[in-house]
Amino acid sequence: xxxxxxxxxLLCALAATVLLLPAFxxxxxxxxxxxxxxxxxxxxxxxxxxxxxxxxxxxxEAMSAGATTSKAKANSGAFSHFSxxxxxxxxxxxxxxxxxxxxxxxxxxxxxxxxxxxxxLYNARSCQSCHVNDGRGRxxxxxxxxxxxxLRLARTPxxxxxxxxxxxxxxxxxxxxxxxxxxxxxxxxxLKSEGRLTVTYQETAVTLGDGETxxxxxPDYGVDGLHYGALDPATTLxxxxxxxxxxxxxxxxxxxxxxLAKADPDDxxxxxxxxxxxxxxxxxxxxxRLGRFGWKAQNSNVRDQSAAAFSHDIGISTPDMPNAYGDxxxxxxxxxAMPTGVQARLGTTEAPDPVMDLVxxxxxxLAVPARRKVSDPITLRGKEMFYTSGCTNCHTPKYVTRRDxxxxxxxxxxxxxxxxxxxxxxxxxxxxxxxVGEANGREWRTQPLWGIGLTKTxxxxxxxxxxxRARDLSEAILWHGGEAQTARDAFAALQKSDRQALLAFLExx
Length: 509
Description:
Blueprint lengths: L7 H6 L24 H11 L42 H12 L18 E2 L4 H4 L18 E6 L5 H8 L18 E2 L8 E12 L5 E12 L11 E6 L6 H5 L3 H5 L17 E4 L6 E4 L10 H13 L18 H4 L18 H10 L12 H12 L10 E2 L13 E2 L7 E3 L17 E3 L9 H5 L13 H6 L6 H9 L2 H13 L1
Antiparallel strand pairs: 1-3, 2-6, 4-5, 7-8, 9-10, 11-12
């Protein structure tokens, strides 16, 4: 058990955080966590060791994100609250970031010069359009235009030079020569959109161990109405829905070594789990860093993730990604002839500083909601099923964030994201055939599970996985293959009462 020394900050942080473990005179630094003393490390190891007692909740378990956890009512706004430990003087920046996150951009030229620059080709007019209520996206309904789901376009390297560029981490992959790295289904006036995502589903019955049948739907993606010629024959299509934006600053504050400690790319321990780290370039510095954001861990920090979304989803340039034409390629001459929203008096990009600072601060500090029914016997039984089925081999329950985190709001918090943030082979069923940096066409980053039980409350639907094919949590689990096959099969073999308990545990997160 952790013991704390009282302090004024601790009183503010409540008892749900390890924010202020004692400062020790011994400054020796153990291998693996340069931010901790030896004694600190022992205490962190103790509190993050997986439990074997499922008779009661663990200490601080209800507070999924430590002192940052939101205790607000679990309604449609549950993902939109600021970190609970945020001081009053910083809340103005959070609110300004929220306004920019919801801001509707318009095409140029416009009388609203601080809001123009949309596109010319784009998928959404605001961040909130995809991350509705700061939550997850969904596939389009029949006959509906896709909004919070889009198609990534990429081809495999065709030459040794291209293979070397990926190996050096200079690029993640290679875009379609005409349509770029993402299909934009919308365009500003006077320009044709690139095309329209289409999806059809084929249903397959899966019989569980007790005879219950679950229907899984397998999607087939295509593109209608291509306005600029055919896609390259080597271009692959990968559908992605928007991800929830809660707890991102805390994820960034997890020490690299705590993630790398779980990596076993060659499966040397023979357990069938070979998590692989994704190394990527920081967009601003060019430094090689550990990827932890995005469906394939293609971004190392929240700001990079945000800048990429501004550029490719909305077509807005920032100091981090200054191309005002977004994802327009050299072949799209009509797009490149359109006016941009760059205003010299405001800066050299359409969203000059401090836009990125504020949006990044906002998305780093969207609070994770507190757990519900954490002491319920069914929840505890489901937690035991989750652990004993092998789900925690990839969905690592908890961490203590860096003592020296960039933002003190995120420093030294006991958090429960349920992810190892590594790449895993998820089998043929979920394969998209698309390489993204270190990730091959079968590999995906383990998704954090905190907040997953409030998906319907926040977004009015229960679509899961990278393309929303799963209509509930049971389907999502049953799609798991590859390294997760054993855990998936263990779930399928459970009696119905135990399966329902495991799902109740997930609903409590």
